[in-house]
Amino acid sequence: MMSNEQLRDEVMTLFLAGHETTANTLSWTFYLLTQHPEAESKLMRELEQVLNGQAPSFRHFPQLVYTQSIVKEAMRLYPPVWLISREPLEDVQLEQYVLPAGCEIALSQWVMHRHPDYFPEPRSFIPDRWTPEFEEALPAYVYFPFGAGPRMCIGNNFAMLEATLLLAGVLQQYRIVYDSAKPVAPEPSITLRPKPGVPVRVVRRRE
Ligand code: HEM
């Protein structure tokens, strides 16, 4: 049986790992959509076609292809976890470098996700880049918003589902309008937060 302390730790992990990351993903996604009306229009067309006025649910998920691409592209540009680390168990020779056992190796999603060798026009928001062919051709560990290997995020699939359906559900009913003259800046804390938040107006689409 778990001790109270273990239970507290588990709940903290789920709150921090599960809530903060998905919340940031959605904040960045809404922000990016306010800056890219053409992507928002395309998303709205997909929502009309796939949902046909119904509330989004689990069964719509596979068909919400463009909506998923938007979430992937938002996590590419603004990875909610922008840095993870690993410690080698033994010395590792990596080309001309030796990584001694026990040293800390920082791996940055921010750096890799904006690498021009892998992502043409790396700073542009292009959800259409996420075709099946593009994903297939992407080398392993280049795009890793959920980490990789045995300690990869356990909430990976759930988070994609949650973020996609929430995005669809909110935008189906509301228009999000950016309400500030200043752009949002990334604040690299443990997660990558939008600073100073994303000031928006929320407008109901129809009564
Ligand atoms: C967009 C949302 C999310 C992102 C970007 C994200 C990202 C990550 C990353 C980068 C890691 C570290 C992986 C590694 O070191 O290779 C991680 C670990 C973890 N995540 Fe997530 N996560 C998200 C959502 C969630 C959700 C919804 C849950 C649970 C409901 C969750 C639970 C966990 C747990 C428990 C770990 C630790 C796994 C381990 O150490 O074995 N995450 N996550």
From TrEMBL:
Residues that, per the record, bind heme: C153
Keyword Heme in annotation: yes
One function term, GO molecular function aspect: monooxygenase activity
Coiled coil spans: none
This protein's record includes keyword Cytoplasm: no
The entry's keywords: Heme, Iron, Metal-binding, Monooxygenase, Oxidoreductase
Recorded superkingdom: Bacteria
Cofactor annotation: heme
UniProt xrefs under PANTHER family: BIFUNCTIONAL ALBAFLAVENONE MONOOXYGENASE_TERPENE SYNTHASE, CYTOCHROME P450 FAMILY 4
Family per similarity comment: Belongs to the cytochrome P450 family.
Protein name: Cytochrome P450
Organism: Xylanibacillus composti
